[in-house]
Input
Amino acid sequence: MISMKARIFTLLVAVLGVFAFGCKPNDLTLSSPDGGVAIKLTNNEGKLRYEVLSKDQNLIEPSEISLFPDQQATIINSRTSSNNSSWEPVWGQFSKVQDHYNELVLDVDYEGVAAQLFVRVYNNGIGFRYTLPNAEEAQEVTFLCQYQLIPEAAIYSPSGERVPLGPVKLSDLGNEEEVRLKIPLVVEKAGTPYLSLLESDLYSATAFKTMKVRYDDVYGALVSENKAQLGGDENTTPWRVILINEKLGDLVTNQVPLNLATPLQLEDPSWIKPGKTLWDWRVHGFTAEDGFTYGINTESYKRFIDFAAEKDIEYFLIDDAWYTKVTPGHFELSDKLDLQEVIDYAAEKDVELLLYYDRRHGEYGDDKLFEYYASLDMKGIKYGFMGSNEPFTRKAISQSAESKLLIDFHDGPVPMTGVARTMPNAITREFCHAQQDSRRAFTPETFIKMALINAIQGPLDMNNGNFDLTGINQGKREKGPRKTNSYMSTVVSEAARTLVIHSGLVCIPDAPEAYAAKADLFEFIQMQPVGKWDESKVLHAQMGDFITTARRAGEEWFVGSVYDERGGTLEIALDFLNDDQEYLVTFYEDTNETHGTTNPEAYQVRSGTVKKGDVIKAVMAPGGGHCMWIRPKE
Output
């Protein structure tokens, strides 16, 4: 039997292994709970620097971090702690999130100004945050964080509605002109883990704007350098976040940014319901077989509501042009439809409504906007053209919550990573290229890049799920692609994309008749419990080439795969299934004749049984996809 003294000694050794302090008081090392990631902090000549190691590999060389870059830093005190807890999000990729980290807090004096630097090290990521705990009056700070990456590293970056940037070698960034980097950045270097550089909890750091990253020739490194006025109640920075994963796809399901965000700030979030929504905007001009042509009118909207009710789709989203003029607290309604009749009809059918607002039509009405939407019994607002406006975005999130409204930001929104934990009514955002808006930027390759880059910052509203691909390509819509026959995809790929892209609101953009005509394939979308996932995994991922995502709800699994313009085969090992359990599976597949350009609507649906350990060969056409719905066999 082990003695009590021996147990205490063993515990002390374990603790010292986590918090290894160098012989100098200004040299500190902090390791992750599993010991796989470590951060070293040094303070030489008044400059505080950090470096990041993974299994003794240098991922980030010594890099400066500061709140006052022009002033000398002196470490006054340091203390460490550990946390291993869990919490349950209102909605998300997981039903329970483990928050396991080791923390170092440094009391730092910047020539008479007292600051605190918080450093948290997780098994798969690191976070830095400063506070000014005693600053009563506001003073200007510059939150500086350098990233001295390995020169051979390749960088990927979002680029709004354009094709994501990359791969660009770090060593070439200094020679490139006008390279505009956005977060989240992805860093790729053969033989080392993947990194992502971003921020978290911008919503709560009210003095700050979105993190900007640039290449600095002087430092020879990537640098984020944000100025703000801190003091009084506004005394904290956002978290600077470095994600670390052996597999590229794991960056998308990494929970460190959510763990770093401020916990839930709503007393009762029970009214927040994630789900799927039909949407009218891209259907205008579509003519059904019975001769009916969709537009902005009451009958069109009743058709959407009927289909939503029939297929248990939670929401119907009405886009622009339902009003003609805005004044504070008042909308002049379009005479094209009877909005109240639509509202009453939706209530009768138990379908919730979401309503669009374009801020360019009257931003002076914002203070009363959300109250007005609530008075119409709307359940949410799709907000367009607010610009990269952080103060307004925070205000819109809080005001919409006060009126119990979901909010979906479009048109270049602020990437407030982690806000889904703090204010889960911020249900999704178009921090990507939404389908049909800009065909030059939407190809199978670009979709995969956005799924592996843009999606790291949080939920995306990408509007996947078109089924009438032939009609769209032929220009049989009022708002289809400007260039006909430029949309490369297959209907199975479209179904898979609704699963691959995580969102609290999955907006499917096609006509009810297009889905009804392929009801057996639409089943894969219909049965997804959007936003209510217990577990999510990215099984395969290669930048721009392919991705496979699996999500579990209870004992059911949904698996979606997408391939690039070349098409190909992925072997999907069903190792995630339970032992000693047989499962029914429905396969939704491209056929031998399917092609993303010439034959996009050919597909097949078949059934079978599977068990743990089986390997499924998912064969995908050029621009194609593959889906599986797996559930226990009774």
